[in-house]
Write a structure and sequence with these properties.
The protein is α+β, with helices and mostly antiparallel strands and about 350 residues long. It contains six helices and 19 strands.
């Protein structure tokens, strides 16, 4: 069959290579070496499992077990945990705030006499309330500062970061430290800077109730407030107008006895940009109508502006916290005014 010596050697090498390959597979090599007994293979030889031979698209039998041990949770479980974490985080945030609280802006007139009532300030946990103190001319009324030998715990100090860090007790005033003349219980109160007329209030817990005493610069008596919390609404800003002149009031102008009083309904309505229905709007000559508005009402001229009126003398006036004033003047054809930088100019009127 192998008459050619070269072919004989090639066949012999192929046979040796096949035997070496079989010997490298443990199961096949063991089965090959097993000897029959009485013409039969032993039970151990018959039960030998051949080594794993990979096929296209197949997996090793230990792959699933290894994957389970290395990453025991599935992608679906990870997404479920993320959703659960988000729900828990939202619940924790809702527990520390009042999610449905609606902010409001209000104005209250306060007296300093012995019969003055105690005003209520409504707050909400997690939301700050700002109280601005003004006098009856609309000028800011600063909060008094004092040197307190026994400051109340958590009282604000002169440090500018007191309002930022929420009145941390670590920054509370020590004996002899200059601080705002304020006393509060159950709430964090602070003043942004010395000389400010603004007080910031934040509840310490969800449902505290307490009182607030505020001393204004040069005032004859402290102001008293009752602090409450509300889950549905709160006063984001409260303008507290004191019914007398403060230390930074504008120069006083003496008016005739029949002049409209500050706080009269017509003055307040025009100050808010809502004149009475029978007020006649006037055109402005000599100035921008966006800076000055005027009406003729009951025999007088009412001017709403941020500029100063020099002449003629006005009969009544009222001012807002943003610097806008409303003036009641006798019926006159020309008004002399002073604008920014001391510039003077005259304004006349015409019926629209």
């Amino acid at each position: 069959m192998y008459s050619n010596p070269r072919r004989k050697r090639t066949a012999l090498l192929a046979l040796c290579s096949s035997m070496a390959l079989i010997s490298s597979v443990p199961g096949l090599a063991w089965a090959q070496n097993a000897q029959p007994v009485n013409g039969q293979l032993s039970g151990a030889a018959r039960s030998v499992t051949p080594a794993f031979l990979p096929r296209s698209g197949s997996r090793h039998p230990n792959f699933s077990a290894a994957a389970q041990n290395a990453i025991p949770i599935t992608p679906g479980m990870i997404r479920s945990l993320q959703h659960r974490y988000d729900r828990v985080s939202k619940a924790i945030a809702d527990a520390h705030t009042s999610p449905m609280a609606i902010p409001e802006t209000n104005t209250v007139v306060i007296g300093l006499g012995p019969q003055s009532v105690t005003n209520i300030i409504e707050t909400a946990y997690g939301f700050p309330t700002a109280v601005a103190f003004l006098d009856n001319t609309g000028a800011p009324w600063p909060i008094a500062w004092t040197t307190n030998s026994n400051p109340a715990p958590g009282s604000p100090t002169t440090k500018s970061d007191t309002c930022v860090n929420g009145g941390n007790p670590a920054t509370a005033a020590t004996a002899g430290t200059a601080m705002p003349a304020i006393v509060a219980s159950g709430f964090v109160v602070c003043v942004p800077y010395k000389g400010s007329n603004v007080l910031e209030i934040t509840p310490r817990s969800r449902y505290p109730r307490g009182g607030l005493l505020v001393n204004l610069k040069g005032a004859s008596a402290p102001l008293t407030f009752l602090l409450l919390t509300n889950a549905t609404h709160y006063e984001a800003r409260l303008d507290a107008e004191i019914n007398r002149r403060g230390p930074e009031a504008s120069a006083q102008v003496y008016v005739r006895s029949n002049a409209p009083e500050t706080g009269a309904p017509a003055l307040t309505a025009m100050l808010n940009g809502e004149p009475p229905a029978d007020a006649v709007p006037l055109g402005i000559i000599g100035a921008s109508p966006e800076a000055i508005r005027a009406w003729r009402y009951r025999g007088q001229i009412y001017i709403r502006t941020r500029d100063k009126i020099l002449s003629p003398e006005w009969d009544g006036s009222e001012y807002g916290p943003d610097g806008v004033g409303i003036y009641a003047l006798p019926n006159t054809p020309v008004v002399l005014m002073a604008g920014g930088g001391g510039r003077t100019f005259s304004v006349s009127f015409k019926d629209d």
